[in-house]
Amino acid sequence: MSLAERVLAEPGKRVLLMGNEAIARGVIESNVKVASGYPGTPSSEIIMTLAPLSKKVGMYAEWATNEKVAFEIALGAAMSGIRSLATMKAPGYNVASDSIVSAAYTGVNKGLVIVIADDPGPHTTQTEQDNRWAAKLAKLPMIEPSNVQEALDYVKKAYVLSERLQLPIIYRTTTRVNHTVSDVVVGEFINEKQEVFVEYNPERYIRASMSWNRRRHEWLLEQLSKAEKYASELGLNRIEGEGEDCILTSGVSYTYVKENLKRLQIDASIIKLELTYPWPEKFLLDNITKCKRILVVEELDPYLEEHLRQTVQRHGLELEIWGKNEAGIPLVGELNPTIVYNAFLRFFNLNSTIKNNPQKNRVNKVRLPQRPPPMCPGCPHRGSYMGLLKAIQKSGYRKREVPIMGDIGCYALSLEPPLEAIWTEHAMGASIGLALGIKIAGYDKPVIATIGDSTFFHAGMPALVEAVNKNIDLLVMILDNLSIAMTGHQSTPESTITESGRKVKPVKIEDVVRGIGVEYVRIVDPFNLEEVVEAVKDALNKPGVKVIIARRECALQAWRRGISYKPPVIDRSKCTNCMACVRATGCPAIIDAGGKPLIIEEQCYGCNLCAQVCPFDAFVLRDNPLLKVDEHE
User: Fold this and answer.
1) 81 vs 32: CA distance, rounded Å
2) Contact 111, 159 (CB under 8 A)
3) Are the C-beta atoms of 146 and 259 separated by less than 8 Å?
C-alpha cells in the first residue's frame, strides 16, 4: 500500500504508520480544515503527509515562513470557527511563543492543536528543550501520547478538549513517538460541517486594555479548572496494575516502564499521565493513597517529579518519592529500556544477576570509526564556502581574523574539516544579528554572516533591516539552494508550486533584499569558484551592507529531477597526487585511494569544484554546469 492508501484507509483497518503519519491520520479523522507549520525534525512528516492529500480531503495544508506565522494562520482559522493545526519542533515554540501565550487569553471558537515535537538526545536539535514547561508558561492544556496508536487517537481527544475549553491544546511529542513505525487501527472520519464566522469582541481579542487582560486571565484560569474533569471524561490519565509500589510516568517513558515490568515479572501500579498540564491533582490524590512509594520515570527535566513532590507536601501525605537522584535517572538524553531497568533494580531492591537481565545478553559495544556528516557530493554550499574562504585569504586576512557567523541549515556542516568555516550556529536567523553585535562592539575587521534561503525568510529579514537602517559594514552571504534541504526539501517562498500542488507566486530574495534597502546585491553561482571569490573580494572592500546570493539548486533535489553532469576525468600524466582536490573540497565523491585521488563516478554530481582547485590542471572536463541554466519549479 502507498502512504496515501494507508493514511486514508477505511475505518477499522490495521495499517502500518509512522507516528507523524498517525498524527496526520488523526488530523484528517478530526475534520481539520487548516494545517500549517514550519519544517523541523522530528515534526516534519505531519505536514509532509497532509500536504499531498490536502485537496482530496478538503484541507489547506502548507508550510509557512516560520512557526509564528504558522501558528497565527491556525489561530486565525480557529477564531473563525474552523478546526486547525500548527506543527513545529522544540525550538520552533520559542519563535511562536509570543503569539501562543497571548492565544491563551484570546481562546478559540473551534479546535486548535499545536504539535510541539521535542527531541531528547538530541538527535537533530540545537537544544535539548523540555517543552512541558511551555504549557505551564502559556497556561495551555497539554496532552502527551506514548505510542503510535495513541498519537492517532489522542489527536481526536485533543480537538474535543480544545472545543470544550475554548483553548488551544499543546500536543507534546518526542522523537521516539514521532518516528516510531507501528501497526495502528484507524478510526472513523468526522464529517461535521464547519461554518466560517468572524466575531467582533474587543475585550476578548484586543490586548491593549489592561483591565480586559485581567478579566481574560480570570477567564483562562476558570477554563483550566475544568480541564481535569473533561480529560477524565475523555479517558485521559489512567491507572494500570496493582501494588503498593507505584510508578508515575508519561509519554514514551511509559513504554519502557511496561517493557521492564513484564521482563522482571513485577507487580506494580502504573500511574500514566496523558494530560500533564494543568497538573491533574484530583486524579493523583484519588489514586496515590494506596501507594507507599512512587518511582517517577520521565525524560529530561524532573517535571512530573517536582509537581508530585509539591502535591504530597501540600496535602501532608506520607509517601516516599523516588525521583531522578534516588533512581539514577539522567537529566540529559533519552531514556531507554536499560536505564529504566537499572532504575527498577534500585527501586525494587533486586539483585542485578536475576533472570532476564538485559545486561547479560547485550552485545558488547564496538568502537566504530567516527563519521562526521559531510556535505553531499555536488552540494552548492561547498563551493560557496570554498570561495568565501579563498576570498578572505586573497583580501589579505588570515582565516581566523574574519568571523563567519553561521546559521541553521545544511550549510552548518561547513564546521567540519576541511572547511571549518563557520564560527557560530545559534538559532534561526541569528547569524546576521550576531554579526551586527560584533561590528557594533567595535571589531575593526570584516564580519560575515552566512544564512540559507529559507532561514532568511524565516527570521533573517529583521536583522538585515537593522543592518541597513544603522548602516553597518557587514557582508551577508545568502546560500540559496532553492529548498529547505536539511529537513526534506520542502518548498520555500521562492517556489512556484507547493507540496499540495498549489501554484504560488515566487518571492525572489534579491527583490526582498533590495526592497529592504540594500544597494550592493550580487548573485553568483557557487559552482564558479572564481566568480564567488571575486564577488566576495569586491564586497569586502565596500562600505555598508553587502549581500551576495549564492544560488544553485540542492544537488539531491536536482538529481531527482534528472539533472546531473558527467564527472571529470583525472589525467594521470598531469596528476602529481598532491591531493589538493581531496583536501580542499572534502567531497565524498573524490577520495584518497592509496595515495592517488579517485573519483567515485556513481556519487559524483559533476560540479567540477575539484577541477577548479587542481594546481596542475589534471582534470579533463566532460560536462560543464556553468554553461547551463537549470530552471527550478
Assistant:
1) 11
2) yes
3) no
Coil, helix or strand at residue 493: coil
Distance CA(581)–CA(102), nearest Å, equals 54
Which three-class secondary structure state does DSSP give residue 315?
coil
Length of the chain equals: 633
| Cell (9 digits) for 624 | 560543464
pLDDT, tens digit (0-9, with 9 covering 90-100), for 112-163: 999 999 999 888 888 899 999 999 999 999 999 999 999 999 999 999 999 9
Q: Which residues of 39-54 are buried (b: 16+ CB within 10 A; e: fewer)?
A: bbbbbbbbbbbbbbbb
For 607, the grid coordinates are 560540479
- Distance between CA atoms of residues 494 and 508, nearest Å: 6
SS3 60: strand
Torsion sign across C-alpha atoms 97, 101, 104, 108:
negative
| Pair 312, 228 in one domain | no
Query: How much is the pTM?
Result: 0.89
Q: How far apart are CA 179 and CA 68, in angstroms?
A: 24
Range of the domain at 547: 380-563
Q: How many CA atoms lie within 13 A of 69 on its CB side?
A: 10
CATH number at residue 501: 3.40.50.970
Among left, alpha and beta (phi > 0; psi -120 to 50; other), residue 459 is alpha
Which pLDDT does position 294 carry in this prediction? Answer: 97
The amino acid at 72: E
- How many alpha carbons lie under 13 Å from residue 191 in its C-beta half-sphere? 1
E strands present in 208-300 = 238-240, 245-250, 269-273, 275-277, 293-297
State residue 364's pLDDT score: 60
Last residue of a domain, one of 326, 358, 390: 358
**Residue 462: is the preceding peptide bond cis (ω within 30°)?**
no
Question: Residue 301 burial (CB < 10 Å; 0-12/13-18/19+)?
Answer: middle
Which grid coordinates are listed for 348? 525494587
Does 465 lie in the same domain as 547?
yes
Q: What CA–CA distances, in Å, run from 552 to 249, 416, 459, 562?
A: 48, 21, 21, 15
Three-state SS sequence of 117-141: EECCCCCCCCCCCCCHHHHHHHCCC
Residue 361 pLDDT > 50: no
Same domain, 225 and 149: yes
Does residue 76 sit in the same domain as residue 168?
A: yes
Q: What is the pLDDT of residues 517-533, one digit of tens each?
A: 999 999 999 999 999 99
Give pLDDT tens digits for 241-257: 999 999 999 999 999 99
- Grid cell for residue 622: 566532460
Taking CA atoms, 62 is separated from 30, 38, 54, 59, 91, in Å, by 18, 9, 9, 10, 20
Alpha helices in 80-201 (DSSP H): 90-106, 132-138, 148-165, 175-178
Backbone angles phi, psi at 403, to 5 degrees: -65, 135
How many distinct structural domains can be found in the chain?
3
